[in-house]
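Minutes, structural biology subgroup

Action item carried over from last meeting: produce the structure token record for Protein kinase superfamily protein (Zea mays). EB confirmed the sequence was re-checked against the source entry. Recorded below for completeness.
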Amino acid sequence: MWEQQHELGAQKMYSLCSELGGLFLKAAQILGKPDLAPMAWVKRLVTLCDKAPATPFDVVRDVVEKQFMKNFDDIFEFFDVEPVGSASIAQVHRARLKLSNTDVAVKVQHPGAEHLMMVDIRNMQAMALFLQKYDINFDLFSATKEMEKQICYEFDFVREASAMERIREFLRITNKKPPVMVPRVIPGMVTREVLVMEFIKGTPIMNLGNEMARRGIDPSGKIAAMAKQ
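Output recorded by EB:
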């Protein structure tokens, strides 16, 4: 009986957060973790980590052209209109650059997502101030301000690209064979809203358990322990 109730509740939460977007979508992604929610909720909400509602291709095309100030067809030889994945802030498409014939991943922000998320945070901050004044003796407002700062970072792809390159270089100089592959950022193809990087084939983290089993990797071994972290 409880399992059926959990499945019903998870579906309602999925539909609600998908429709509202913004911070609600981010919250659903966080809630869809095995250590936070029943398995019925995890199975439904975890799909929002890479299968959240996507931005139509025509809009993606416009965003890319405006950000790079170039004709879309002059940039890409090939561009898959179906995203590899879509989450709360952006979606990723596989493409091939026209000049270098390089396979790339193109990360494009959902238009309006940042504004919507900031509106949600402002509402949360107003509620935090109200609760602090009339109900609880705890600094909720500072926590929401820190959340605001961190989410703003996530919308800055220039900052993200810089961090990727620093990590990639650190791994290169400290390991003969780096244990982690970090995609190379394509020079000159980074703006605050669009990030182009080399495309690396891999296994989605949600499918990691099945892939480890297929390869015969011991789930109690070091590799599995690293993956769980």
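Discussion: DSSP finds ten helices and six strands in the chain.
Next step: EB to file the record with the rest of the batch.
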